[in-house]
Task: structure prediction
Amino acid sequence: MWDRFLRACRCEPVDATPVWFMRQAGRYMAEYRKLREKHTLLDICRAPELALEVTLQPLRAFEVDAAILFADILLPLEPMGAPFEFAAGEGPVIHAPVRDRAAVERLRLFEPEEGLPHVLQAIRLLRRELEGKTPLIGFAGAPFTLASYLVEGGKSSHFMRVKRFMYDEPEAFGELMHKLAEVVRRYLHAQIAAGAQAVQLFDSWVGCLSPRDYTEHVLPHVRHVLASVAEAGVPIIHFGTDTGALLELQREAGGSVIGVDWRTPLDAARRRLGDGVALQGNLDPILLFAPRPLLERRVDEVLAAAPRTGHVFNLGHGILPETNPDAVRFVAERVHRVTSR
Result:
């Protein structure tokens, strides 16, 4: 059933639980590493034919039920006027961090067809390739997660700079969030228009916030994005990590599927979120390194805790580069075998 994933996102009956993996294309695959010998990550993102190839690699290797566009959540920052690079061993580095009102005001809104045409072309190529075989997921970083990179200047452990900016200059921070939300809203609409059949909003770092701070500084901006994108009629996955304290607020903000990481059991998430929204998750990605009997047992436990309808199996976060592809293959096959009905 090629639309198994889309049906599960809509809480419709399926013949087996669909499975896909965040970062299912990437450094753990030999095919990808070979390509990276010749091209940087940003080279691949900017070349639609290369993004097509990398997106398709895991579909050839594993029994996954959805493809997710190979791109990076930071791509919208450059056309906004915040160029960045990936430094070896450091991850993303923002060349001019945004840490005051003047820097916020310099950020530009842009139209995705002008600022990120290569991403949209990659989606069009993928839809032609995958039509009737595998659904395609588009995605974007959420406003707070993008703000975190912009203010911190890259990755962070404590998010001190972005939270201080939020506390010290709430009006300027609100303007930053407003601009990012509008860029993300336009970007997701453009991806859907280009052919994405579902979209995921990655709020990877929002778990550093308290419910009060989320309600005041984040929820209105995420709601602005997701209420608009919902009008396009495709499933929306609202994902974050370490968001056990925020699940109800995430549902209030929007999304037809709520991503749940391994810290919150799926049956507990279902009780808290109620019916009418699907769940995605929630195997700990480190379990892909575990002895096979333990991995099998933990996969089965996730499935036992999940609702019968409205569940998309995934990890609680992305596949790590050191992961053995055989473990990924085993999990996908196990999910389908156990849930086949």
Summary: The mean pLDDT is 97. The chain has 16 helices and nine strands. Strands lie at 67-68, 84-87, 91-94, 136-141, 198-203, 236-240, 257-259, 278-280, 311-312.
